[in-house]
Design a protein that fits this description.
- Helices cover about 40% and strands about 20% of the residues.
- It is an alpha/beta fold.
- A hairpin with a 4-residue loop joins strand 7 and strand 8.
Length: about 230
């Protein structure tokens, strides 16, 4: 049974999220502040963390940074902030997803399930990757979720791996942001598709790819992204 750690200083939020996640078949642990949340994760690492952005002690972004020093655990941020800049900042900081308060508990459960599916290597109904993908110097192993460039390992978050693997499965095919979300995440209706741009930028940086002269991932202006068939 996967464990979800919910870190929020509002007891009603912890209780509400806990009820829905428990009903969905998850084991739930909770913490009321950032310091307690970090201690709880260190004592017993969870399979996924739901993390409020505004916390006493360590703030959500500060705690996220500490988690990312040692773990690639999927993290969903809870935020009351509406601006696109704030959301992009969360993704830049290593969050896999975010939910804006007030939120729908079933939506949050759907996001938790999708991220854990990705972590476990499962694919949505559209298909399942199995064979190692080799495109020039880029190698992707869906079975182990490992990526290398010119033989050197590349560490990607769960969401980043899903994006690049989905595109690499069909090299040369242009993916709109919405289609990429559907293929990589399993749904698009709850997600701000502009967050895709942030993840793609992170993937490019980690692959050592140059957007102006890409080896692997091309931008198709006004449409989306594709992995090059002739990746070098």
């Amino acid at each position: 049974m996967p464990t979800v750690l919910v870190i929020d200083d509002e007891a009603n939020i912890r209780d509400l999220v806990g009820v829905y996640l428990t009903s969905a078949g998850f084991e739930v642990a909770t913490a009321a502040d950032g310091n307690a949340g970090l201690q709880a994760f260190n004592d017993r690492p969870a399979d996924l963390v739901v993390l409020d952005i505004m916390l006493p002690g360590l703030t959500g972004p500060e705690l996220l940074a500490k988690l990312r020093e040692t773990s690639d655990v999927p993290v969903i941020m809870l935020t009351a902030r509406e601006s696109d800049l704030d959301k992009v900042t969360l993704l830049e900081g290593g969050a896999d997803d975010y939910v804006t308060k007030p939120f729908s508990p079933p939506e949050l459960v759907a996001r938790v399930r999708a991220l854990l599916r990705r972590r476990d290597g499962a694919r949505p109904a559209a298909g399942k990757l199995s064979a190692r993908i080799v495109l020039g110097g880029l190698e992707i192993d869906p079975a182990t979720r490992e990526v290398t460039v010119d033989g050197a390992p590349v560490v990607l978050t769960a969401r980043e791996f899903d994006f690049v693997a989905a595109m690499a499965e069909e090299p040369g095919v242009v993916f709109s942001r919405e289609r990429l979300l559907e293929r990589a995440v399993g749904y698009a209706e709850f997600v701000d598709s502009r967050g895709v741009d942030v993840h793609v930028r992170h993937i490019r940086e980690k692959l050592g790819d140059d957007a102006a002269d890409p080896r692997f991932i091309e931008t198709v202006r006004g449409v989306g992204y594709r992995v090059r068939k002739d990746a070098r």
